[in-house]
Amino acid sequence: MQPGSEASRRIARINSHLHPPVSQMEETSLLRRATCRSQGGASGFKVAILGAAGGIGQPLALLMKMNPLVSVLHLYDVVNAPGVTADISHMNTGAVVRGFLGQPQLEDALAGMDLVVIPAGVPRKPGMTRDDLFNINAGIVKTLCEGIVKCCPKAVVNLISNPVNSTVPIAAEVFKKAGTYDSKRLLGVTMLDVVRANTFVAEVLGIDPRDVNVPVVGGHAGVTILPLLSQVNPPCSFTPEEISYLTDRIQNGGTEVVEAKAGAGSATLSMAYAAAKFADACLRGLRGDAGVVECSFVASQVTELPFFASKVRLGRCGVEEVLPLGPLNEFERARLEKAKKELAVSIQKGVSFIRK
Ligand SMILES: NC(=O)c1ccc[n+]([C@@H]2O[C@H](COP(=O)([O-])OP(=O)(O)OC[C@H]3O[C@@H](n4cnc5c(N)ncnc54)[C@H](O)[C@@H]3O)[C@@H](O)[C@H]2O)c1
Ligand SMILES: O=C(O)C[C@H](O)C(=O)O
């Protein structure tokens, strides 16, 4: 390898983020991979998961380690990060995995990342709303976003921590305060609502869920989750009873899991699947793939609210375009008004948390 070559610069960059420093043997292996990439092999993205030892974090780390678009995977948590990292790092896939434990290592975990996925925070127990998590999770998200400001202000951020309807505005305010806010790079993850909607609709239609695409707009809590059943692909129609059943089941999918887990947390495995699918879409967008469209809770002008979930086109800078809602039927228009009322309150609560 030529000193000063792209491959050796890449290694230097990777090494500067690794914690603890890599051993000589690991370095040789990294050099080989970087040389291969510099000779025309696919280069990858650097991805950090914050909250990587949790119920979502662990399976998400596994799925991201399997993603060929990822070259470096940083796993950060305030507990158990070394164990999860040791375990995941034995998988013979391309991504180099490094673990980071506790606040003093947050900056190393974030330095130079292209994509930061955040499932850090407490989950619901039966009887709780997502908003009941605000008091704990708002502070966690604030701290993590302050780290992003310092170490990777241009990273695309996928925010999973609940209540998403408030944590996304919190993140935006932290970034605005620091002067690093780019609305295109902050995305609330509502993919699980789409995953559930596709599954439940496919059950009703008696078809393969992989062949179904249901846009889900609004937000990520109760009535703010609005499946657009008039826009299902492939085109189909439902009876009023089916519409009522499906809307209710999709809006309460999270609660269904929380109750079934009976105090042991909320959706983790289906969420990791949804988050990995969404992160992959973001990475394909960053790579420059055309036509990558997913639903996400983002800064928006689709309604009068400053944030709203709808279909977005993903590209090299994150959100390239927020797509319009398309024609809604009377039922959906009425539900949209209800969703907007609750969303406005949740968004304001997030904004006030930082501006107070
Ligand atoms: N957006 C969605 O669709 C969706 C779906 C499911 C769950 N969630 C939310 O995701 C969050 C995590 O859920 P879970 O089931 O993985 O919970 P969990 O308790 O199993 O894991 C959370 C992890 O976050 C870590 N953590 C706590 N404070 C941290 C900090 N300051 N920095 C880094 N890590 C920290 C914990 O140590 C833990 O490992 C919850 O808020 C939950 O409500 C969102
Ligand atoms: O329901 C929850 O609290 C977790 C998550 O938001 C979900 O939709 O499963």
Tell me the fraction of residues in β-strands, as a range: 15-25%
- Strand order across the largest sheet: 3-2-1-4-5-6
Oligomeric state of shown chains: single chain
Bound molecules: nicotinamide-adenine-dinucleotide, (2S)-2-hydroxybutanedioic acid
**Helical fraction:** 40-55%
Q: Please report the number of helical segments.
A: 12
Structural class by helix and strand composition: alpha/beta
Number of strands: 11
What string, H for helix and E for strand, traces the elements in order?
HHEHEHEHEHEHEHEEHHHEEEH
Calculate Rg over CA atoms: 20 Å
Specify the biggest β-sheet.
6 strands, parallel
Could you walk me through the main structural features you see in this protein, from its secondary elements to its overall organization?
With 356 residues, this protein is α/β, with parallel strands linked by helices. The protein has 12 helices and 11 strands. The strands form 3 sheets. The protein has a 6-stranded parallel β-sheet, sandwiched between helices. Strands 9-10-11 form a 3-stranded antiparallel β-sheet. A two-stranded antiparallel sheet has the order 7-8. The longest helix is centred in the C-terminal third of the chain and has 26 residues, at 330-355. The chain is globular. Mean pLDDT is 92; it is low at 13-22 and 34-42. (2S)-2-hydroxybutanedioic acid binds next to helix 10.
